[in-house]
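Course assignment 3, question 2. Fill in each field.
Student: A.L.
Task: Predict the tertiary structure for the chain below.
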Amino acid sequence: MSDLNDAILEAHANNDEVRLVALYTQAANETNDVDTACFFLTYAYIYALELGLRDADTLYLRLDAYGRV
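Answer field:
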């Protein structure tokens, strides 16, 4: 996960919000902890909403499935 963490930090430094959606989604997919997954999904969802990406719909449904919306 440290490579993923480094990639997230780099994307933040470069203001690469599209990449952040993908990286936060990947981080959510790679954890076995629901709270941690929802933390990452929330960030992915926020960036996806801000960018008007279709990913926002899927991320919303995932958060909803966990009762987090």
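Instructor remarks: The mean pLDDT is 97. The chain has one domain: 2-65.
Grade: pending
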